[in-house]
Amino acid sequence: MNQKLDFFIIDDSDVNNYYTEDLLNEFDYTNSVTTFLKAKEGLTELVKRIQDKSKLPDVVFLDIRMPEMDGFEFIEELEEEIDEQEFNVKIFILTSSKHRRDVEAFEKQQIACEFLNKPLDKEEIMSMVDKHFS
Amino acid sequence: MLIGVVFGLLFPIMAIIADCFVFNNVEANYTAVVQQIKNNPIHFIILTAPIILGGTFYYIGRFAAKQRKSNQELIQTNVIMKETNELLDTFNYHVSHDLKNVLNNQIVLSRMINKYVDKKDHDKLVEISEKLIRVSENGLATVMQFLVMSKEGYLINSKSVEIDVQAEMAKILVENGCEERIKVKFTRTDYLTIDLQTKVFESIFVNLLTNAIKYNSNSPKVEIQLVQTQDGKQILFKDNGIGIDVEKNADKVFAPFQRIDNASQSEGTGVGLFIVKKLIQAHSGTISVKSKLGEGTEFILFFPNP
To answer: Residue ranges of the domains in chain A?
Structure first.
């Protein structure tokens, strides 16, 4: 793969961000990893980049249960800001939850394309990147 | 109702008068009237009717009222059960999430240790193991909190004892390994002992003390005042931590599974103060909070006189 990828990780668990960032940095195709401990901050950055028409990340790893704004609230607010046809960022839900509530909420929405369970491993990232970027 | 009772009671007398003086020409003296009543058995029926009918209606009424009351109780129990069920469902969701998070964090950090052992990166290994220790400690605290929460019903039913507040506080600090991490000072002691269950006292102050340590960027200090009022005993617990924006978070401070903005950086489950409030309420007490961002937090606990 020739393309270089930019990643966002949005998760209130600093340990998870620490780990996922470390994992992503192992790949040659990783250009940058930016982590956010609050969904709101990630959203603000994304919206700013959409408005500036500057480079958006290629993949956003999004946790579900976070204080203040959770993953699905993030998706709802993002939906209002974007044109779904043109929006090309792959959003992967990354959660430790397999709860029915969360799976149903994932199936109802349109923006996130994968529902991944923690802990993430190298092979899973590789197969997801292959699936969406080759 | 009253007219019914009066009519019911007067009816036999009217019947006797009618029988004796209207339909028959009985002499107006006691013996003659009694004789007339004896002759006409209908009077026995009429005389006992109010008692039998009254009694019957009285018991039917009482039975209906009882039924209505037990129906209301049933509805009330149903509402409580429903609420409890919802709370349990939410509780289950949060417990499994929080525990999974702890275990996941331990897994990923252990994986990283493996990786950096191979790379022989000593500094990185130190960094990771420090995180691992912190995650595990928080995990243990999480489990303890959930245990306290599920035991709460049991705690409410056990007996209060006289607790020496200062001695018990010192004991809690030692038992929880906090005595070097926080300074606790009693600045006013109107009274020395308080009637509470030891476990409840411990749960309340372990929670408040760990919060005071956790949400503090300098050296944690707590000032405690034991204030005797006319109605009961107050405990003022003031820390020097990061504080809470009380106006913005009024309904969040004591609600279950809530994390407040400036607290979300620290690990936690968001049940601590909920437990504290529940325990205090179980002792007919109250807790309130006064705080400003950056200026510490003061909790005001109040236990009314028994």
So the answer is: 5-133
Report d(CA B130, CA B124) in Å as an integer. 10
CATH code for the structural domain at B160-306: 3.30.565.10
Cβ neighbour number for residue A32 with a 10 Å cutoff: 14
pLDDT at A65: 86
The closest CB to that of A119, out of B97, B107, B264, belongs to B107
Q: What's the pLDDT at B157?
A: 57
Distance CA B129, CA B112 (A): 10
- Using an 8 Å CB-CB cutoff, list chain B residues near A16: 104-105, 108
Under CATH, which architecture does the A5-133 domain have? Answer: 3-Layer(aba) Sandwich (3.40)
- One DSSP character per residue, B47-110 reads HHHHHHHHHHHHHHHHHHHHHHHHHHHHHHHHHHHHHHHHHHHHHHHHHHHHHHHHHHHHHHHH
Domain boundaries, chain B: 2-72, 160-306
Q: What is the pLDDT of residues B195-204, one digit of tens each?
A: 988 878 888 8
A96 touches chain B (CB under 8 A): yes
Least confident of A1-5, B70-74, B145-149, B157-161: B145-149
DSSP string, B208-232: HHHHHHHT-SS--EEEEEEEE-SSE
Cβ-Cβ contacts under 8 Å, A12 against chain B: 264
Nearest to B109 among A15, A96, A101 (CB): A15
pLDDT for B110-126, tens place per residue? 999 999 999 999 999 99
User: Does A16 contact chain B (CB < 8 Å)?
Assistant: yes
> Are A66 and B71 within 8 A, CB to CB?
no
**pLDDT over 80 (residue B292):** yes
